[in-house]
Amino acid sequence: MTRLSMLRFLPLLTLLLGSQSVMAQQPVEMADQLRADGKIWVVVAVIAIVFVGIVIYLVRLDSKIGKLEREVNDQKRPLTNRSATSADRPTR
């Protein structure tokens, strides 16, 4: 990296590090209350379910896209064969 590009990221790095120190000093009352009530596991479960749902959706989407790609490739293959055979035929 050049010196100029490193200087460009310096303000961003300063803001990120500064915000981390400010946020670390403030207690998170909502999380403490959820932990005290034992409801933090509900939050964790909901986040896990959402994450698993997104992963399942992406896997299914990937398989559908793969199927469509195979269909397109299969359709392209006969077209190239047809064009070669039509050139072999005599014209009228």
Could you explain the architecture of this structure?
This is CcmD family protein. Pfam families: CcmD_alt (PF20077). Keywords: Membrane, Signal, Transmembrane, Transmembrane helix. It comes from Fibrella aestuarina BUZ 2. It contains three helices and no strands. The relative contact order is 0.04. The chain is flat, with a radius of gyration of 29 Å. The mean pLDDT is 80. It has 92 residues and is mainly α.
Outline the fold blueprint.
Layout (H helix, E strand, L loop, with lengths): L2 H23 L3 H9 L2 H49 L4
Please give the largest β-sheet.
Answer: none
Total domain units: 1
Shape: flat
Number of helices: 3
Order of helices and strands: HHH
What class do helices, strands and sheet pairing give? Answer: mainly alpha
Poorly predicted tracts of residues: none
Rg (CA only): 29 Å
Organism: Fibrella aestuarina BUZ 2
Pfam family, one: CcmD_alt
Signal peptide: 1-24
Keywords: Membrane, Signal, Transmembrane, Transmembrane helix
Please tag this protein with its features.
mainly alpha; flat; 3 helices; 88% helix; CcmD family protein; 0% strand; single chain; 92 residues
Summary, kept brief:
The chain has 92 residues and is mainly α. Helix content is 88%, strand content 0%. The model has no long low-confidence stretch (mean pLDDT 80).
